[in-house]
Amino acid sequence: MKKEWKTSLQRGEVIGAGAASGSGIWGVIALLGEGGYAEVYEVRDLSTADSPRYALKIDSLKVKQEPRLATVRAETEKLKRLQSCDGVPRLVEGGVGKHHGRSYVVMELFSEDNLAVFQQKAMLSIAAIRSIGLQTLKLLQSLHTSGWLHRDVKPANFVRTRDSDPAAGGEWRILDFGLARQYISKDGLIVDAREGYNEFRGSTNYASIKAHQKEELGRRDDLWSWFYMLVELLQGKLLWRESRQPGRRASGSDDEQKKTAHRMKLRALSDPNTLFASGRCPEPLVKMSQHLAALQFKESPDYAKLQGWLAQLTSADATRLLQPPPGVLRPQNGVAVGRSAPKPPRLPPQAPAQQWPHPSVGLQQHAAPGGVFAHGQHGVWPGGAVPNGGAWHGAQPQALTAHHLLNGWAPPGHHLGQQESLDGSFWAAHSSLQTPRMSNSTEEYVGQGSQQSSQIPQAVPSHLSAVPENWDQQLGQLGSEFGEEFDQPHEPSMPHVARQQQQLKRSAEIFDDLHADIAGPLAKRPRPSPAPSRVPAAAAPHLLEEDASPLLHPPLPSSAAPAASAARPAQQISPKAVSFAPDVSSIIPALDPANVVALHHPPAPSAALDAIGRQKRRRHLPDRPVPPSPPLDLAAQGSPAARQDQAEGDGMASYGPAFLQSAISAFDEGQVSVNAKILKKLVPSMDPAEAYVGLGWAGWCLIHNTTPETRLQAKQMLNHLGDFFKSLARTGKGA
Ligand SMILES: Nc1ncnc2c1ncn2[C@@H]1O[C@H](COP(=O)(O)OP(=O)(O)OP(=O)(O)O)[C@@H](O)[C@H]1O
User: Rounded CA gap, 393 and 381, in Å?
Assistant: First the structure.
């Protein structure tokens, strides 16, 4: 299908002065494509009867305004030198012509299908994918053998020949040498990476990790882009493109898109399964990824091996890609939620109390802020995955999970699974509100983590050797999924919250498993003496045991709090004072998307929420009416159509943005006490999702060293929320 005619040249327009100037006379027939700085037209030579058709590439009008952007001239120079290379378009005129100050070049014409268009037209068979993969790989190999790198490998830069059979996968050629660069010097040596090089080259979705890191690119980077293309051919999409679905506005800036793509590519480096919504990467692609990851800058890729792996792709792989493996929660909006592990036997209820962690756990060295805790990619943790999924750590200088593990926060008598379930909810709510900062810090963290990992002593706590190998992978995967979900720059919305809650439930399960796994081995160890409370008495003079009582404790009226504190002067806080987890654990089952869904038609932000956040909403969110969300059929979520609906609803059916925005600022430490008041006011009109955010907020205040007053408010908030969730679980309605 020809593109809509909207660019600078018109049908029938004549370009070139003809034989007198040594050029053809080119009559414009159709627009074929347009890139960043050029337009490509189908033309024919008007000076010849029955002229074949050609492609004419001309600088776009933008270039005329900003001549430094001119690319056609430079590209033609490169194309001239590449004429002996396989699959490169043949130049029809030796040189560059000028048309009203814009450079153009005429070349061999291919079909109107570039690979980006082609793969959208029909579901490709695995045989077609193998054929396209092989051809494009060979084109790159040929280019590399000629001493050139392409540096912008992407589907739009491969184009099918006109006479090839699309049903058989077509014959493919390579285009667009604007960024191509010679990597072999005149004396036949591979050129060193330029010192101080710091440029991004390529296209966000297909750029290699090194490209994202603005490093000099080599052959391996062209092949990483090829690899991502292959993933896209197999799956129909790249997961980091999620937020740019057809018909939806792009929800992030280019920078944000780059960051998301970079982060997800880094994650896929240690776990290629994450490239696929099904959570399973075909084995041949795992091998490709490992091969590419192992290549040094100057090293030649093993094209033959890559071809061999490509040939191993079978239709069974393709079928599996569409099916989550047993135990993987159904992907939501294309994102696999996590792999469930076989459940270890639960501890009997009367299991002896444990202190966590055992004092012998030597993990303090990992507690330094900035990401050194998790670097499992290099095998520091059993199972070899990042235990907090990167995202956990990225959320705060001290990861919440790390915080528990490292600081022995949970008092004796406390069950880790419950505590960690709570922790998961804090983290989830917290990170969902931290979107922009979260992506930054996660990215920094991942980079830093992998850089520093080699310098960090191997410190696997001894008791963890008794823990199944994959527990940290599970946490890692979960953390990453959370990270991925919440790093997406979209507005909070119903489906978003439902997913969030489903993941939270999953986290509770994993943490419970973890608890059972760890508590068992620990039970066999000598019972340590009780750990001191994490909150020293001097730092928490106003905290009373009652103030921190379990969730069902009746809330203090807000005005009563200071009075209560005054009546009972400073008192050592007992371990029980922070032991609210059992109650929170009991509300975790109530955090069920079905409950939220049932209560949430239509989403109706309360007037109070609206008023408080109006100003902020104006600043942060588009000022538009909130449409009622259609009933969400959870049972149908697995179907592609339902997922699409859900995806498109995402960002549309947003509710309570004012609340969420005000909660976002609650996480700025300076403002916590102000926002505590706001949150408390809102409790009566809360819906479950908002309550959930409040839960996260309160937990965050308790875990971090906020002021004693704020912690008190947070505990009151937990009381309210406890009632709320209990009522939700009992009646299907919030309090
Ligand atoms: N010789 C050709 N035959 C047929 N179609 C072509 C030809 N050259 C380019 N096209 C079409 O035009 C599109 C844009 O071409 P090209 O990638 O060379 O432009 P660009 O401005 O350099 O793009 P970008 O900014 O994306 O790098 C291609 O994706 C392809 O669909």
Answer: 15
Ligand 1 atom closest to Cα of 33?
Answer: 12
Query: Is 78 marked within a binding site?
Result: no
Q: Does the CB atom of residue 178 touch ligand 1 within 6 A?
A: yes
Cross-strand partners of 182: 148
Contact 726, 587 (CB under 8 A): yes
Return the structure tokens found at 436: 């922009």
Q: Is the CB of 159 under 6 A from ligand 1?
A: yes
Q: What are phi and psi of 603, to 5 degrees?
A: -65, 130
Query: Where do the DSSP E strands lie in 568-712?
Result: none
Closest ligand 1 atom, CA of 114? 31
Q: Name the 3-class secondary structure at 310.
A: helix
- 503 versus 88: the higher-pLDDT residue is 88
Each residue's pLDDT tens digit, 432-456: 333 222 222 222 222 222 222 222 2
User: Best substitution site from 57, 153, 204 to test ligand 1's pocket, by max atoms within 8 Å of Cβ?
Assistant: 57
Chain position carrying tokens 């003496």: 529
Dist CA 656 CA 303 (whole Å): 53
d(CA 735, CA 722): 10
Please answer whether residues 277 and 331 qualify as being in contact, where contact means their C-beta atoms are separated by less than 8 angstroms: yes
219 secondary structure, DSSP code: H
Decide: 650 in ligand 1 pocket, CB within 6 A: no
CA distance 709 to 542: 7
Give the position, in ligand 1's atom list, of the atom nearest the Cα of 116.
29
Q: Select from 566, 655, 568 the least CA-distant residue to 610.
A: 655
Q: How many CB atoms lie within 10 A of CB 369?
A: 11
Phi first, then psi: what are they for 184, rounded to 5°?
-115, 130
Q: How far is CA 189 from the centre of its chain?
A: 39
Which of the listed ranges 17-26, 402-411, 424-433, 633-642 does the model predict with the highest average pLDDT? 17-26
